[in-house]
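Please fill in the sequence for the structure shown.

STRUCTURE ENCODING:
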């Protein structure tokens, strides 16, 4: 949101959002502003108290078989909510419903997200897949035996353990980088383009390559699902917040039947219209994300003292990419060509897998130097398999287009001798 500073300072959240000039479509005028807006944070920035609260809520929901229910539900609707425009809006409601269930166990719990991009080089080495958080690869019978999901069984398909199946030598293929997502945020003028650029790439590869139950239609059985989708939802929310007037209620493309979508379409098997979930902070969508708040610098009441001190500034990573040839910027990072760009269309921050999000504002934190030997050696993201594309009802042409674009971007960055700040010397 680009607001006059005086109005941002002088008025409360409600007024600030009205100043932004969002014109709600018919029906949406009646959605009221939430009295309490929670801030979803990167999993690694939770305090141990917040993490314990989250864990306890998830374990409660698990023991009452909510996890089975959400897995079952997702499987029932899957062919309608993937590979088309319903993807973002349906999953936004889905994870919000889950968060509400979790509140039945821990009233103050907030769903975190997993910034999978900063782990893209070496996902299996991410602390998020370690003992402290969600546990790693499946062991005997591919059953997960570490972390939060240690020895989980679900029952709706029969009594089965929760499985994960990484690739060879317990490692996971390369995922999509902050550079890629930044590029998609800057070059997707429509909802449908953003959806295709995210679902067919970042979204799919995380599911497919964690494998096991994540690579099925009942993937919500794996507790990783919710943090991955919270991150996908964050990218969508950031894209909306770049231009709230234009994008809050932008909805285009087609549904699973090939029909043009409309704001009044009901989300599959629900009585909720698409427009009801689009504006964060309104109706039942009483949350936002830390990256959006930090970038906006408004609605100060929502921020902790530490975050309030945190002014958005171009990160070292951003400065590196801005020095690339103009032609490359024009093709992949049009906003970096401008003097001023929205921090919301930039995932290039000085953060690392071990120091996520909060480190951006942490003066004493210096990100590790990227390894010179990786200059010009950015890896390609992994590809989706034929089986996955079929299972998810994705459009093979659309997937190919997203993958080829991502690879062309990697080629050009490498040709320009770019050194990605998110690559580490894994031999060390
Ligand atoms: C969990 O499922 C596995 C099969 O995947 C089974 O061998 C094991 O006995 C189950 N554990 C419990 C506690 O039911
Ligand atoms: C800030 O940086 C210091 C030193 O690197 C680190 O120990 C601390 O955990 C960081 N705090 C946050 C909130 O990231």
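FILLED IN BY: designer on duty
SEQUENCE:
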């Amino acid at each position: 949101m680009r607001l006059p500073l005086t109005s941002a300072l002088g008025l409360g959240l409600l007024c600030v959002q009205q100043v932004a000039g969002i014109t709600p479509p018919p029906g949406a005028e009646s959605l009221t502003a939430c009295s309490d807006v929670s801030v979803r944070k990167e999993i690694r920035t939770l305090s141990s108290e917040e993490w314990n609260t989250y864990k306890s809520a998830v374990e409660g929901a698990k023991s009452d078989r909510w996890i089975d229910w959400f897995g079952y539900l997702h499987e029932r609707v899957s062919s309608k909510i993937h590979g088309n425009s319903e993807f973002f809006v349906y999953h936004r409601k889905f994870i919000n419903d889950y968060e509400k269930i979790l509140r039945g166990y821990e009233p103050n719990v907030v769903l975190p997200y997993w910034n999978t991009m900063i782990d893209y080089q070496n996902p299996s080495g991410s602390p998020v897949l370690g003992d402290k958080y969600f546990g790693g690869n499946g062991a005997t019978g591919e059953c997960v035996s570490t972390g939060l999901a240690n020895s989980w069984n679900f029952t709706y398909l029969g009594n089965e353990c929760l499985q994960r199946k990484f690739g060879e030598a317990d490692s996971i293929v390369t995922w999509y980088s902050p550079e890629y997502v930044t590029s998609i945020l800057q070059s997707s003028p429509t909802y449908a383009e953003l959806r295709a650029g995210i679902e067919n790439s970042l979204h799919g590869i995380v599911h497919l390559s964690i494998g096991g139950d994540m690579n099925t239609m009942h993937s919500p059985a794996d507790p990783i699902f919710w943090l991955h989708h919270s991150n996908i939802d964050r990218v969508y929310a950031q894209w909306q917040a770049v231009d709230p007037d234009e994008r809050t209620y932008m909805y285009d493309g087609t549904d699973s039947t090939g029909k043009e979508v409309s704001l009044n379409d009901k989300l599959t098997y629900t009585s909720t219209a698409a427009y009801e979930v689009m504006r964060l902070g309104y109706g039942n969508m009483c949350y936002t994300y830390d990256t959006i708040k930090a970038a906006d610098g408004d609605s100060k009441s929502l921020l902790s003292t530490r975050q309030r001190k945190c002014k958005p500034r171009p990160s070292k990573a951003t400065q590196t990419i801005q020095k690339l040839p103009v032609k490359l910027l024009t093709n992949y990072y049009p906003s970096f060509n401008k003097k001023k760009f929205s921090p919301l269309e930039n995932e290039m921050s000085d953060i690392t897998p071990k120091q996520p999000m909060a480190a951006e504002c942490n003066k004493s934190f210096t990100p590790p130097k990227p390894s010179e030997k990786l200059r010009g050696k950015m890896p390609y993201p992994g590809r989706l398999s034929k089986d996955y594309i079929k299972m998810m009802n994705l459009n093979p042409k659309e997937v190919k287009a997203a993958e080829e674009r991502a690879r062309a971007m990697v080629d050009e960055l490498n040709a320009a001798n770019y050194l990605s700040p998110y690559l580490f010397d894994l031999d060390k």
